[in-house]
Specification:
homodimer; alpha+beta; five-stranded mixed beta sheet; 12 strands
Chain lengths: 327, 327
């Protein structure tokens, strides 16, 4: 929602914080760190904050905000192939967020704890004279040496994505009255996809050993594929004709084909983008069928650098680095 | 700095968040959770946020803010007897916090990483249209089953505190022009104690096996002793005549004896408050000597409930629950 006055998040992290990162931190390039866990496991650690007015709207239901805060972190764990274990929470709330707000917020967490099999480990609450600032650190476990990193992609890999793309970004446009969607069911679908990510924790846990590299799509398909390719030292090619779209997104693009840019760069999808060797394509399809998850092959990994987006006629689309940057 | 419009932090946590806590979370009563670690260790997890205008002043140097953010969390680890390992960081910064601010902030972290032997594991940065909101989750390790909890105090234990008390709270009064300190060296001492906690990580690591219960003093001596006593099901007695004071605090109290209330309840000390069996008193003194740390016996643990503060003539002082509450 906000555009960068200075640096992109990644440049900022690189310049100031990468030198502070320990060996466990994967150079801060993986949105998660790995440290030794018990019984031949590793613990996967990740942290993300949601800021009112930047990542959610003041009018969003507190229940949805709580679940979004938790789920954006669970999505990072899912990308690594980790089983979620628990989380720490820090809340800075303005005085306008009253007892009713807190009751709804904690009810949202309680429901998600059951759904994802995790528990609150600790945290802190305080006042803020400004927008609500919510931060969550999540911990998961993975068998030692089996985490799926951003850096594992090889030229020749096929590129896959879970679910459908662009719904959340289109939903945000609806909420901001930048997009008119006549069908109420379509509108509800897009808005709910913006408000409430569906982290692919089951798929992530099961693609361990099959996926060569993975990332969850939070900044937008093009930007996050860019991060994966940069970490792996490869190039990525996306075919727009293959992008998985919901009925609602398909209808919106039929009315305004330029919205394909929103699908490619809009962010907040919280789908998994992963690569696998061509010989694994049957196993990927079988896994998706077995889990009842939508998984779509959308392109290829090649030698080189950068991301290319091909339009249906095979020509390259200019999308730029795309992606969503908070600064 | 801010006084509660609604609920105290602990009541708020109890009502809404305690039901969400997993078994590892120690009922959210210990400011840290314990989960299984590698090789017969446990990992200690804690998270705290600092909010501009609540926990630090907009004019505080960025280097000090960074180190305070890290150190308040290291202080929680120290209380548990844990060795610090790493941390996750989320920053929400207004556009007024420019590149120079970030450079100083990260330099402060870099210096403390060396001092405390830890590294950044990951995190996130974003924009906020309001005061800076900084959250940090810290991870430490302790031998399995050896963490020092709040709940281990027994009637008969002696009560100890590290360092000196009240300096930070008096320093905040100086910064807010609520207190005049004629001696510039005294003023500098008090202000630097407010701006920059000195977490007792070495003492904490070494009192494992000796301390029966411990807590770090962030909310104020009386409030935090209250938390320890509540978790242990015991009563605490403090003798004000025994409170360890710096020269600067002693001079301030000589000028205005009512400031003893600030020493007892002011908060931000980040000293360790711990109990040990009377038979361990020699070992406690020897440990302090060996480490070159100031450790002072300030009272007793008794059967019962609540905290009693005795004035030098042996009468009970009325201090109330004291303590600092963010809401």
């Amino acid at each position: 929602m906000a555009k960068p006055p200075h640096l992109g998040e990644f440049e900022r992290i690189a310049r100031y914080f990468a030198p502070l990162a320990g060996e466990d931190a994967l150079g801060l390039k993986d949105d998660a760190a790995l440290i030794a866990g018990p019984n031949d496991t590793q613990l996967v650690l990740t942290a993300d904050a949601l800021i009112e007015g930047v990542h959610f709207l003041p009018t969003d239901p507190p229940r949805d905000i709580a679940q979004k805060l938790l789920r954006v972190n669970l999505s990072d764990l899912a990308a690594k192939g980790a089983r979620p274990q628990g989380y720490l929470l820090t809340l800075a709330l303005p005085s306008t967020h009253d007892e009713a707000w807190l009751a709804e917020f904690s009810a949202g967490l309680a429901a998600d704890q059951k759904q994802y099999g995790i528990a609150l480990l600790g945290g802190d609450s305080s006042r803020i004279d400004g927008p609500a600032a919510l931060s969550l650190a999540a911990i998961g476990t993975v068998d030692a040496g089996r985490a799926v990193l951003r850096s594992g992609a090889k030229a020749g890999d096929w590129l896959y994505v879970s679910g459908t793309l662009g719904d959340a970004a289109l939903g945000l446009k609806v909420l901001r009255s930048d997009l008119t969607v006549p069908d109420p069911a379509h509108r509800d679908h897009l808005v709910s996809r913006y408000r409430l990510p569906q982290p692919r924790t089951v798929l992530g846990r099961h693609y361990v050993g099959l996926a060569a590299a993975a990332i969850d799509i939070s900044d937008g398909l093009v930007a996050d594929l860019g991060h994966l390719c940069e970490a792996s030292g490869v190039a990525g090619v996306i075919e727009t004709a293959r992008l998985p779209l919901s009925d609602a997104a398909r209808a919106a693009l039929a009315a305004d084909p330029a919205l394909v840019e929103t699908v490619l760069t809009g962010g907040d999808d919280y789908e998994l983008l992963f690569t696998a060797m061509p010989t694994a394509s049957g196993a990927v399809a079988e896994l998706a069928r077995h889990l009842g998850e939508q998984v779509t092959e959308i392109g290829r990994i090649e030698a080189g650098r950068g991301v290319t987006v091909l339009s249906p006629d095979g020509s390259a689309l200019a999308v730029g680095k795309g992606g969503y940057s908070h600064f």
